[in-house]
């Protein structure tokens, strides 16, 4: 449906409303997954019938309720911030998970794939229950085909446990694409999504069988390298930065981007998944501070030290 054409050419508000309704109804009815349309203020405008199977809440009960009422208190700030970023950061889509309050007071962790539609002024969400839909789709980013945030949260502790048992190291590489927002602003969301897909392909090509790539959401990616030492991590990071700075051709336009990459090493920079992710994130932001399009290892005191860190 060409929404822009309809808005410009169709002067009948009722006709527009009916067309949007039919489009939304078809999507909700045909999807095999739980789906929801959520308003800007967080109210369930419409859902399909699959929710009752997982949550015990009927379609009629869920419609009109507010999402925040069903998000576990400890997950609210992060989940709502991820949704808000779709509007404020011009990110086309995102993936996240949180504990959802079901009938009877039980919380179930659900995996959400969300886009924001300016034309509908609403969020369109597809939702999977990993426990019920125990297949690769529950742990896959819909846009890029990489593993998602939920898979990262499941896999990284296992990698660290294996490294601890073997007495070996491991590396976490946190990647943020430089210039992504500019592509979205100048060429639109479709071009931005295309850039994310192409960047993901480049990452998979570079890392091969040496590690696993994840897209937690937005323009951020994580690479996990099992059995990696500092030299292996630096070599991989250098290849990734070099490959991701090469131009793309998107919609007949040459697009130049780059990548800021932070590295955290196990066990030197942290012994838990959370500590390593935080360290890699800090190292990535130190690269942003120092001019972008490079990589750096985490250094203790990164937050306080304005000097640019060494890359190796």
TrEMBL record:
Domain PAS: 37-90
PROSITE patterns, A to Z: GGDEF (PS50887), PAS (PS50112)
Domain of life: Bacteria
Pfam families the UniProt entry points to: GGDEF, PAS_3
Gene3D superfamilies (alphabetical): 3.30.70.270, PAS domain
Domain GGDEF: 168-300
CDD domains per record: GGDEF, PAS
Name assigned to this protein: Diguanylate cyclase
Organism encoding this protein: Pseudodesulfovibrio alkaliphilus
């Amino acid at each position: 449906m060409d929404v822009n054409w309809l808005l410009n050419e169709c002067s009948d508000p009722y006709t527009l409303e009916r067309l949007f309704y039919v489009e939304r109804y078809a999507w909700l009815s045909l999807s095999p997954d739980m789906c929801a349309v959520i308003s800007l203020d967080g109210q369930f405008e419409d859902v399909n019938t699959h929710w009752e199977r997982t949550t015990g809440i009927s379609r009629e009960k869920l419609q009109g309720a507010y999402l925040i009422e069903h998000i576990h208190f400890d997950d609210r700030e992060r989940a709502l911030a991820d949704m808000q970023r779709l509007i404020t950061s011009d990110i086309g889509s995102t993936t996240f998970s949180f504990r959802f309050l079901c009938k009877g007071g039980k919380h179930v962790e659900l995996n959400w794939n969300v886009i924001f539609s300016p034309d509908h002024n609403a969020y369109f969400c597809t939702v999977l229950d990993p426990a019920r839909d125990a297949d690769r789709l529950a742990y896959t980013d819909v846009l890029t085909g990489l593993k998602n945030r939920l898979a990262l949260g499941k896999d990284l502790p296992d990698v660290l446990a294996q490294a601890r048992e073997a007495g070996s190291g491991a590396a976490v590489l946190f990647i943020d694409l430089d210039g992504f927002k500019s592509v979205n602003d100048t060429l639109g969301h479709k071009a931005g999504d295309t850039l994310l897909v192409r960047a993901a392909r480049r990452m998979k090509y570079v890392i091969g069988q040496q590690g696993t790539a994840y897209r937690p959401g937005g323009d951020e990616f994580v690479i996990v390298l099992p059995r990696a030492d500092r030299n292996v991590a630096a070599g991989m990071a250098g290849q990734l930065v070099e490959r991701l700075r090469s131009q793309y051709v998107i919609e007949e336009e040459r697009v130049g981007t780059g990548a800021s990459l932070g590295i955290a090493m196990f066990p030197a920079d942290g012994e838990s998944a959370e500590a390593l992710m935080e360290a890699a994130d800090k190292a990535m932001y130190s690269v942003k501070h120092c001019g972008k399009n490079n990589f750096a290892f985490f250094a203790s005191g990164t937050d306080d030290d304005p000097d640019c860190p060494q890359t190796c």
